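sorry for the late reply, my laptop died twice this morning and i had to redo everyting from scratch. anyway the thing you sent over, i finally got around to it. pasting the sequence first so we're on the same page, its 230 residues, then the predicted structure underneath. double check i copied it right bc i was rushing
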Amino acid sequence: MIWILFIGTMGLSLWAMWRVKAVYNRYNQGDVRSGVTGGEVAAEILRRTGIRDVEITHAEGMLGDHYDPLHKRLVLSEANYFGRTPAALGVAAHECGHAIQHARAYKPLHWRMAAVGITTYANYVVMFLPLLGMFTGLIAPLTGALVMACAWGVIMLFNLVTLPVEFDASRRAKAVLAEFGFISPGEEATAVRKVLDAAAWTYVAAFITSLMYFLWHLLPLLAGANRSRD
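ok and here's the structure:
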C-alpha cells in the first residue's frame, strides 16, 4: 500500500508540474498587443495600486518567480521580466497579486507566513524520522506514526491555507490585467487564464499529497485506539 500511495502521489505531482510547464511553454510565445513586458506590467500594477515599497527584480531560471513578503521583493525570472507574452504577463501579475495581498493584510497570506517556520520543521521530520526509525529501531511504530501524522498534518494545513492565497492572487491578476488594458479580450485573456489555472494545479496536487500521507499515518493510530477500547 505504501508503494501505491507513493507512486500515486508522485505521479500526481509530476503530472501537475508537467502540465504547468506545457501550458506555460505553449503561451510563452507571441507578443501581446499592448507590447509591454512582464517587468513593466509588475511596476505599473504596483504603482496604480499604491504599493511603492516593493522592489522588483529578476533572476535566472525558469518559473522561479515569487514574492518575498519578508523583504518586500518581487522576483521574476528573466523570461517573464523581459517577456511580452501572455504567459509572462500572467505570471508577473500573479506575483503582484501576492504583493497586493500583503499590502491589504489578506488574512490567509499572513496565516501562511506565520506557519512557514513550523512547516519547515515538519518537512525535516517527514524526511528524516523514517530513516532514523529504520536504522536505529529506537522509535516504536505507534510513536512514529503519531509524530509523522502530526508533521504531515502541519504540512497539510499549510498547503490548505496556500490554496486560497494562490487562487486569490490569480483572480487579482486576471482582473487587473484586463482592467488596465495590458491584455486584450479573447485569445490573450484565455491564454493568461489557462496559464494561471494550470499553475494552480501544482498547489492542489501538493495539498492532496499531504492529505493522503496525513491520513496514511493517522489510520494506524485510530485503529489502535479502537482495539484498546475493545
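The mean pLDDT is 90.
thats about all i looked at so far, will dig more tmrw
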